[in-house]
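EI: anyone free to look at a 420-residue chain?
SC: sure, send it
EI:
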Amino acid sequence: MNILNQFDKSSVCKIILLAIIVFESNGILSRSIGLSAVLGSWIYAFAMVSFFSIALLQFFLVNRGKELNVFFYPIILFMIFILVSFLSSVFLFPKPIMDWLPSLYKFTPLFIFYFLYTFKYTEKEVVLGLVVVSVSASLLLLFDSFSPLEFLNDYIRRSAFFSLEGRRVVILKNEVIFGFVALMSFIISSKKSVFKNKLLVTIAMFLFFIQAFIMESRMGFLAMGVATITLMYLKGITQKTLQLLIAGLLVVIFIFPMIFNKHIDSLSNMSMNDSESNISIRFETVEHYYQLFKESYGFGIGMMSSNSQSYNVLHMAEHYNILDAGAFSSLFQFGPLGLIAWIFLTVQCLKTYIKYYNQSNKTDPYSASAFAFLLAFTLSPLPISFFTATWCISMGGIFIYLMWFYRIQMMNNNADRVAY
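SC: here you go
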């Protein structure tokens, strides 16, 4: 399979359009032209709801509802957010409806599913669109490191390593990591020329170093490693995977300590009892929101406006952000329904991806990359819920769409075999 083959114009346009949509899910494009974060987010939310309306018309008028129920997963998930937020804000932590209901716009990036459905994206267009996003975002961060861009100031985060006195800008972190995983999948799963392999390795290493030196995500390092090992396991130990494994070990043993010497020194000086360490704060966050979850009698905290003066338990403590609680936030914020939704959608996605990959005789790099990426973050010491956390829910919408796409493909393949 030739990953770098020529696309027709429609595919190129769809890939570029997806890249734009994903970039704006982080509010980057609107900020770059001077729009406020709130206005940009509302425009984006309106666009996503519009795509939902179009997709709904397609579903009932064109396809006559003769498709998989996966189509309804995003809207069911959104209704869970509304239900739990209603119960919490009306009965448990009372707030006016105009405080909590409008804040749900933060979850509308989930409806990227319906954008993809409207234009009937293929798996290749989705994955390559994310690769384009990862490379573009990394180039933007590289440029910013030499000549700071004012519109990226809102994305500056405290350095994860105290010894570094640099500008740490974090944008589209998961998309950059996914791009790395996809490129590794292309290298491992497909037969290409030496030149193309070297090109893919070069791009993958570029993404890795952007992740390492600018975004500095320790969870990202771990996910990249786990995903790569997963890809090698899926493909089986061939001569190519053995060479890649040896090369990776050499990097870890010899090069990694030299490059990350300052990082390692900083990490060794971090105290688990120091609330500024960015490590212990995650455990403290889990404990903090667990106590609030108990106050909700197990219903969940729900969603609340971040700028409201009314009683707002999500923002009552300055140093605690529920997003730092990882997948535990699915339980704390949306109760048992949120936890079940995270587990169900994660398991269903993983099962679908691996089934499709196996049916492709272990040659499809796209389903392999989606499986390896999602599995890596699920097996993380602090798992991520791509289906209930606002900062990564656009990726959740993409994962649900890929599940829909693969199930449709397998359903059609089975129908073809029966007809034959």
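EI: Residues 328-359 form the longest helix (32 residues).
SC: 👍
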